[in-house]
Amino acid sequence: MAGSKAGGSTKNGRDSHGQRLGCKAFGGMRVTAGSVLVRQKGTTFKPGLNVGLAKDHSLFAKVEGRVRFEGSERGRRRISVLPEGAAA
Predict the structure, then answer these.
(1) Within 13 A of 59's CA, how many CA atoms are on the CB side?
(2) N or C, which end of the chain is more exposed by having fewer CB within 10 Å?
(3) Which of 30, 12, 38, 43 is CA-nearest to residue 82?
(4) What is the mean pLDDT of the chain?
(5) pTM for the complete prediction?
(6) CA dist 25 → 11, 15, 34, 38, 63 (Å)
């Protein structure tokens, strides 16, 4: 009597791919308008100055400039994009 079914059957092979979440641009980096700054589930980071919120909660730059991470407001951090000429 065979101890197991003859070949071809597996109980492995069902793993999902990562969603590539996280920061895509960091403080001080130059970004162009439309660049994705953060991919996130929920609003861990809130949009600040010149930053938009996509329907999947991704943050993107509305203008060309430099990324700035700002302090927390009730546990939520803000991300802004300052145009090149703006004082930091």
Answers:
(1) 27
(2) N
(3) 30
(4) 88
(5) 0.78
(6) 40, 28, 12, 7, 14
Q: How many CB atoms lie within 10 A of CB 4?
A: 6
Q: Which of 62, 18, 61, 22 is nearest to 45 (CA)?
A: 22
Residue 22 φ then ψ, to 5°: 125, -175
Q: State the pLDDT at residue 4.
A: 62
| One-letter identity of residue 31 | V
How far is the C-alpha of 56 from the C-alpha of 74, rounded, in Å? 22
d(CA 63, CA 11): 50
More confident residue, 5 or 50: 50
Q: Which residue did the predictor score with more confidence, 72 or 34? A: 34
Distance CA 40, CA 19 (A): 9
